[in-house]
Amino acid sequence: MRGAFSKRRQVGASEYAYISFLTVSQRRTLFMHAGLTEKEFNQPYWRINEESCYWRDALFRALRELFSLFEYAPTILTSVKPEQYLH
After folding, report:
1. CA distance linking residue 39 with residue 32, whole number of Å
2. Mean pLDDT, to the nearest integer, of 30-47?
3. Are 35 and 46 in contact (CB under 8 A)?
4. Alpha carbon 56 to its chain's center
5. Rg of the chain's alpha carbons, rounded to an integer?
6. CA–CA separation, 59 and 64 (whole Å)
7. H or E element: which one contains 56?
8. Which long-range contacts (CB under 8 A, 24 or more apart) does 4-13 make?
9. Residue 34 pLDDT more than 90?
10. What per-residue confidence (pLDDT) applies to 12?
11. Residue 44: which residues within 8 A CB-CB, separation 6 or more?
12. pTM of the predicted model, to two decimals?
């Protein structure tokens, strides 16, 4: 997951392009993190380009949260407490 939501991967890509590069399981993780349901997940993800897409903002917010979460996460998780690497 860290590799999928690395800020380095997003450089130069729009949100739509970035989401299109994700695998199905990574995209599902993003949608579930956004609090969306299977109904939204099963819709074509290109709908995020439409202003009328009601789940677009939640998806973009979740994407930013996942970028932030994995930006400071250690490479190997052992007994590190979350408060040691989350800001």
Report:
1. 11
2. 90
3. no
4. 12
5. 14
6. 9
7. helix 56-71
8. 5/63, 5/66, 5/67, 5/69, 5/70, 6/67, 6/70, 6/71, 7/67, 7/71, 10/67
9. yes
10. 63
11. none
12. 0.71
58-81: pLDDT as tens digits:
998 998 888 887 776 666 655 666
Q: What CA–CA distances, in Å, run from 49 to 15, 34, 55?
A: 9, 17, 11
Q: What are phi and psi of 54, to 5 degrees?
A: -75, -20
> Residue ranges per domain, the chain?
7-85
How far is the C-alpha of 68 from the C-alpha of 71, rounded, in Å? 5
- Residue reference for tokens 């290109």: 46
Dist CA 60 CA 19 (whole Å): 10
